[in-house]
Amino acid sequence: MLCAAAFFRNKGKSVVTEKEFLMGISMDFRWMPYSDAKELLNLMLAAKVVKKDGDLIRPAFDVASADVPVAYRPPADMIRMAVPSVETGPMSFPQIIAFAEKHGMKKKDFISASNALQKKLGISPEAAGLIVLRDGGIDISEIAERVYNGISGG
């Protein structure tokens, strides 16, 4: 909640687009990489700290009531701390990369193949990653549902 309050206060807005949120977190404030900003947004949505209405993001609480330190900056490991240790939730692309590496794929090759497939088919990075894993002969049965849940929002 503190991170959301700091973001909206620093932006001086009560509603932003999803792109504006992600770019603000990663590029404007330089709090974290873009991919982590996406993960942060997903965590905030799941925790009902922010609400999403179409492409608009707004806080789900009174920002003015939050006690935000003057030079607030989220902890560097905030995303890792917030991700549940029980692996049942939706999978992010960085988690899929880790799965690929664990199963013997080179990170650079996996990302390159996923990006090419994503661009060619116009699909999400997670869906492309799943296809690359499958086509690489890796059993995806243990992660397929989690990836699907992440893509479908369920």
Overview features:
mainly alpha, single chain, 154 residues, Arc Repressor Mutant, subunit A, 6% strand, 3-stranded antiparallel β-sheet, 8 helices
Description:
It is a single chain. This protein has 154 residues and is mainly α. The protein has eight helices and three strands. The chain has helices at residues 2-11, 18-28, 34-46, 78-82, 93-102, 107-121, 125-135, 144-152; strands spanning 16-17, 50-53, 56-59. Strand 2 (50-53) and strand 3 (56-59) form a beta hairpin. 27% of the residues are buried.
Topology:
Blueprint (H helix, E strand, L loop, with lengths): L1 H10 L4 E2 H11 L5 H13 L3 E4 L2 E4 L18 H5 L10 H10 L4 H15 L3 H11 L8 H9 L2
Brief characterization of the structure:
The protein has 154 residues and is mainly α. Helix content is 55%, strand content 6%.
Low-pLDDT runs: none
Order of helices and strands: HEHHEEHHHHH
Number of helices: 8
Percent range for helical residues?
40-55%
- The CATH topology of the largest domain, please? Arc Repressor Mutant, subunit A
- Average residue-wise pLDDT: 86
Which structural class matches the secondary elements? Answer: mainly alpha
- How widely separated are the two ends? 23 Å
Judging from the principal axes of the Cα atoms, what is the shape? elongated
Percentage of β-strand residues: 5-15%
Quickly name the level 1 CATH class of the largest domain: Mainly Alpha
> How many E-type strands?
3
Radius of gyration: 17 Å
Tell me the strand order in the biggest sheet.
Answer: 1-3-2
Major sheet description: 3 strands, antiparallel
- Named at the architecture level, the CATH assignment of the largest domain is Orthogonal Bundle
